[in-house]
Specification:
By secondary structure, this protein is mainly beta. The structure holds copper (II) ion.
């Protein structure tokens, strides 16, 4: 249940909710699902960004500690500060009963050392690693540079 495409997220969330109710308060911990992953087609061939949302329906917090990708030799976690500058962070919090959102102008993945330039219509694979939960692999479509997700 940890390997999901965005399309199966609704079903998984329903299942997780049912499991939560039947297990009661004795079983706490994070329950993660990843939705809305995408990569905007980059203007240059040497760098790209990645975005997604990690939804936590569990009673425990977790942290995103690293991401690997089939398309890049170097993937780092970046955050955007108030003045628009970017800085690398070692981990990103995924609160209990909450979500971690990576989006334009906020938290994002920075993909360096590209093995190929992502083109609209391609698919990129991300494997997310967490402090507590098992790794999750998602397939992220490459979208036009102007794409903005509906939230
Ligand atoms: Cu960045």
């Amino acid at each position: 249940m940890r390997r999901l495409a965005a399309g199966s997220a609704v079903l998984v969330l329903v299942t997780a909710g049912a499991a939560c109710a039947s297990h009661n308060a004795g079983r706490d911990g994070p329950r993660l699902a990843v939705t809305g992953a995408y990569v905007p087609e980059p203007p240059m061939a040497d760098m790209a960004a990645g975005y997604f949302t990690v939804v936590n329906t569990g009673t425990g917090a977790d942290r995103l500690t690293g991401v690997t990708s089939d398309i890049a030799t170097d993937v780092s976690l970046h955050t955007t500060t108030a003045n628009g500058a970017m800085s690398a962070v070692k981990a990103m919090a995924v609160p209990a009963h909450g979500r971690l959102v990576l989006r334009t102008g906020g938290h994002h993945l920075m993909l360096m050392g590209l093995r190929r330039k992502p083109k609209t219509g391609d698919t990129v694979t991300f494997t997310l690693r967490f402090a507590t939960s098992s790794p999750i692999t998602v397939r992220a479509p490459v979208r036009p540079a102007t794409y903005r997700p509906e939230r």
